[in-house]
From TrEMBL:
Transmembrane feature ranges: 6-24, 31-51, 80-99, 120-143, 185-206, 233-253, 265-287, 299-323, 329-349
Protein topology in the membrane: Multi-pass membrane protein
Entry similarity comment: Belongs to the NRAMP family.
InterPro entries: NRAMP_fam (IPR001046)
The protein, known as: NRAM2 protein
UniProt keywords, alphabetically: Ion transport, Iron, Iron transport, Lysosome, Membrane, Transmembrane, Transmembrane helix, Transport
Biological source species: Leucopsar rothschildi (Bali myna)
Cellular-component GO terms for this entry: late endosome membrane; lysosomal membrane; plasma membrane
Gene this protein is translated from: Slc11a2
Source taxon at top rank: Eukaryota
Amino acid sequence: APRIPLWGGVLITIADTFVFLFLDKYGLRKLEAFFGLLITIMAVTFGYEYVTVKPNQEKLLQGLFIPYCQGCGTPQLEQAVGIVGAVIMPHNMYLHSALVKSRQVNRADKREVREANKYFFIESCIALFVSFIINIFVVTVFAEAFFNKTNADVNQVCANSSSPHSSLFPNNNETLEVDIYKGGVVLGCYFGPAALYIWAIGILAAGQSSTMTGTYSGQFVMEGFLNLRWSRFARVLLTRSIAVTPTLFVAIFQDVEHLTGMNDFLNVLMSLQLPFALIPVLTFTSLPSVMHDFANGLFWKVAGGLLILLICCINMYFVVAYVMSLHNLGLYIGAAVLSVIYLSFVAYLV
């Protein structure tokens, strides 16, 4: 119910992000513990939705190991690329490195460094696996609950459940289009108010976790690349101001659907930026002059290079498919110029 305007919600999010970030004053481990709490909340809430909706397990396993998408077009491709960007975020590469740097390890003792590397590897694998599981929960819940539904179907169910949000869905036979906002509403209509509020708690935890990791990454990048040794408050203020200003403007002058569209676009943009994080990381970790005895072997160099090449190919395919669907010569030319610049910069990094 619109008791709080959208722009008010954005301001509340800005305020509580600042409050949570000041946990850093009590040590990085306390902040990491809070991240762990947020991720646990996400896993529990989205897991609840998964159990409630009861997706087809056989189809889920089939889709995991034999990926296919019958009759898919550009919107579905955009979602797929967005998921890659949402799970493997470029700024998290820097965040993981910074957290590793903060650990108390005797770097003069090779045995201790080797043991620490093993646990860093396990830590990263667990983090990515949990992120993967949470994404499976969300995607399968949406697929099971919303696939092949029409606006009229949802409108009727919401009206029967006395939901105040039934007006969101016009009474027509067009295919239902859902986003983060409407998704929670539909879950509430089909599976009761508890599903709606639990979804909201999970989304809040996801947003806070994402916002705080982005802010922390910005601080570490400023220290490392720009050599700016600012106070914590000044760094948080700058990075948050840059990040939230566009969101606040959209919230004031547009509606929640535009915010959701911006979220999808940002996920795709992060996927396009991945090579700019992965190539330098692979390069520096492969240099004996930097890593000494811990430089990447041939296997990791080849595997990492192939992975980066795959990501670049997926991204370029998406750009070509997206621009071709617009049927505009000017956009074709603009996209071609930007693609040449993008590929040239990637080639330069290589």
